[in-house]
């Protein structure tokens, strides 16, 4: 290797490191439903300009527009709804059918994650709900593994927004994912929801990182901007996630209350660009 080659290699490495630092260590995304006043094309234009990498909670018909802007559809439809999910055996056949179709479509279009839910308790005990979710997710795990797609069961709060939802504590969801034991079945760890239910966010993420496949943000209280009116130190949370080597997406799912929603989104992006 010549002296010139050494300097060229060193220069290229420095430029690569600078680019990585500019983008941050976490791939940030934004949830589509929080910006309904904008067309998808407008949202994608702004997201790409800021440096975000994806658009979250989108449908297949949205994918071409998202990809046109060089972004990834970071989370899409999988199977079930918030009240009706894997905790009821009678739902399993429909859930598996929907997931197989949606996973196949996601794999063909390089969409990494599909969403699913536990469902509401409706009188079901925690132990029975966990057992039923394990049974159902065991039926889809190999299919997801073969296709290379993550099936993410969302953690939601049952205190404020989703009364009676069963997968409402990290320990409940971890028990399911641990027993399913698949690299493609994970939890969607919604920081907003888990701050409401249990707090202790950073330690919980660190202790359960192996079971978490996707993150959502949202200020508590109110699910608004990630700013000084909120309970959490978002830069510390983002740093903890980045330090764990997280390779997935952290999607902003707060509802802007400010006059300029795009400014709020850009501030969130900069805050979590660690």
Shape: globular
Residue fraction in strands: 5-15%
Instruction: Predict the CATH topology.
Output: TIM Barrel
CATH class: Alpha Beta
**Spatial extent as radius of gyration:** 19 Å
Question: Which homologous superfamily in CATH is the superfamily?
Answer: Divalent-metal-dependent TIM barrel enzymes
Uncertain parts: 1-21
Number of helices: 10
- Report on the biggest sheet: 9 strands, parallel
List keywords for this structure.
single chain, 274 residues, alpha/beta, TIM Barrel, 9-stranded parallel β-sheet, 10 helices, disordered N terminus
Describe this structure in words.
The chain is an alpha/beta fold and about 270 residues long. It has a single domain (about 25-270), classed as Divalent-metal-dependent TIM barrel enzymes (TIM Barrel). About 45% of the residues lie in helices and about 15% in strands. The chain starts with a helix and ends with a helix.
């Amino acid at each position: 290797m010549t002296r010139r080659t050494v300097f060229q290699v060193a220069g290229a490495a420095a430029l690569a490191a600078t680019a990585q630092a500019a983008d941050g260590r976490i791939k940030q995304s934004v949830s589509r439903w929080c910006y309904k006043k904008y067309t998808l094309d407008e949202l994608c234009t702004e997201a790409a300009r800021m440096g975000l990498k994806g658009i979250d909670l989108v449908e297949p018909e949205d994918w071409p527009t998202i990809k046109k802007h060089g972004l990834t559809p970071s989370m899409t439809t999988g199977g079930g709804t918030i009240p009706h999910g894997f905790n009821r055996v009678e739902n399993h056949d429909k859930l598996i059918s929907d997931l197989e179709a949606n996973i196949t479509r996601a794999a063909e279009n390089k969409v990494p994650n599909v969403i699913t839910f536990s469902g509401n308790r409706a009188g079901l005990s925690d132990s029975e709900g966990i057992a039923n979710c394990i049974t159902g997710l065991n039926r889809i795990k190999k299919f997801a593994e073969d296709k290379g797609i993550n099936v993410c069961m969302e953690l939601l709060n049952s205190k404020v927004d989703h009364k009676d939802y069963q997968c409402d504590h990290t320990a409940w969801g971890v028990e399911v994912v641990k027993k399913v034991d698949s690299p493609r079945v994970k939890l969607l760890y919604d920081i907003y929801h888990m701050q409401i239910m249990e707090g202790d966010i950073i330690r919980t993420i660190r202790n359960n990182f192996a079971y978490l496949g996707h993150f959502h943000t949202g200020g508590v209280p109110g699910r608004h901007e990630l700013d000084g009116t909120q309970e959490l130190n978002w830069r510390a949370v983002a740093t903890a996630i980045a330090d764990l080597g997280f390779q997935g997406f952290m999607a902003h799912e707060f509802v802007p209350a400010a006059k300029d929603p795009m400014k709020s989104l850009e501030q969130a992006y900069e805050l979590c660009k660690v």
